[in-house]
Structure formats: C-alpha cells, structure tokens
Amino acid sequence: MKNKVALIILALTTLTWSVSAENSRFIEFKEIEKQIEANKFDTPFRDDPYFKIESIKVTEISSDDFLVESEFKQSKDLGTVIMSIEKLIALGTKIWEIVKKGKPVTNLSFSKPVSVLPNNENPTTAFNSMSGWSAPTSRKYRIEYTNLLGMNVISFNYTVYFQHSGRYQGKGEYITGLTVKASNVAVSWGFEFNASSELETISNRGSMEDPMAAATVRINYQASSVLRDIQSSESFHVAGNGEIVKF
Questions:
Q1: Sign of the alpha-carbon torsion through 178, 72, 182, 160
Q2: Where are the domains of the chain?
Q3: Euclidean distance between CA atoms 222 and 231, whole angstroms
Q4: Which residues, 6 or more positions from 36, have their beta carbon under 8 angstroms from its beta carbon?
Q5: By the 8 A CB rule, do 154 and 148 touch?
Q6: Average pLDDT over residues 67-93
Q7: Hey, CA dihedral for 242, 112, 57, 16, is it positive or negative?
Q8: What is the DSSP letter of 126?
Q9: CA distance to 62, 164, 193, 195, per residue, from 198 (Å)
Q10: Coil, strand, or helix at residue 149?
C-alpha cells in the first residue's frame, strides 16, 4: 500500500513539474556595464555573482476571476486617438507605467485602457451603440530574475485585462479595456526595477466587411544594480475573438 501511495505521489509530482515547465519560458535580456569611477568598488565587489543576472523566467499562473470583476473598470472616457488603420481606430494611452521604483502603479487615472473600435467619424458614439461584449477576460504571468547564486532578486506578477467580441451594427469583433496591471512586486537590496507597457500595432484579422480587431502590446523591463543596467521586453497579441498569444 505504501509503495502505491509513493508511486501516486511521484506521478503527481512529475505531472505538476511538466505542466509548470510547459507554462514557463525564458526571455532574452541585455546587460550594460555602468561607467564607474576607478577604485570606487574593489574587484571582488565588481565580480560579485549576487549582482549578475543569469536568467529571466516568465510563467503563466492562474488568474483569480473574482479579481477581474473587481479590478476591471471601463471608463466612459475612451481617451485620445493613438493609432488608426482603414477599418480600425485605437483609443486610450499609448504608453503606461505598471511598475515604478519597485512598486506597482495603482493610480491609473492618467492612463486610459486601450480600445480598438470601428474607424468612423465619432468612435465614442459608435462605442455607445455597440453590443455583445464578453465578460472581462484576464491572463496572469509571473516574472522572475535569477542571479548567478540562484536567488530570485526581482519578481512580480502582471495581469492582462480586456473585453472582446463587441459588435457594431451586427458585425465585427472589437476590443475594449485592454490594460496591464502589476502586483506582488519584490525587489532585493541593491537592485532597482521599473516596467512599462506600450501599444505597438493594431491590425484587422477579419475581412473589410466583418473586421476582427487585434492589438500587440510590448512590456519593457528596466532593472539595474550598482554595476549594470538590465534591459528586456516581451510582447503579447490579443484579438477580438478573445485570443491572446505571448511571444
């Protein structure tokens, strides 16, 4: 009986590891040596593995649905026009901070979520007559910076929120309320960390008669220690049918 229990535990442990491995990936980063005055730091300190980043890992984690409803708020003010193509127009804020000096940015009053809507003379009027919006949808990810000692020196979670499938005059699949928020930020001594999001492009993945809105957003990470600046980024793509792809 004990052997069977042990086998079951081993199988569950292996399955958990496999699922976690499938949901994790590493992103590229660039380290830039800072210009430091001669003799300001001695050689052992310069070579300290604590300050050298070995990897940056991204892992998709479970998103609490009840947080989506409580944190997702679609304002009547859609913001300014930030991008447009023939059939689509994007409104909101092109670049917004999500982590500033190691703390999540919670005051988003100056940052409007991104909406990708029909491109006509008055997109706000069009938005008010649209229907069929999905419930708020979210995906949550964890970022971990590991140094040469195997320590996680920077970590945080971020969540992508948006609504999709909105229709205008019975056609199209549009996006509204697209934003990114950070939580559970931890920055170890000797490091600084900031992160921001930026709308890169919008596109039409449908037809000219029945558009499917899509948007690509890049997240930029800026970490630094007393010796180095560490720069990295990643992007995700969301579509009017609810699809979200990380790359």
A1: negative
A2: 25-246
A3: 5
A4: 227
A5: no
A6: 77
A7: negative
A8: H
A9: 24, 19, 17, 10
A10: coil
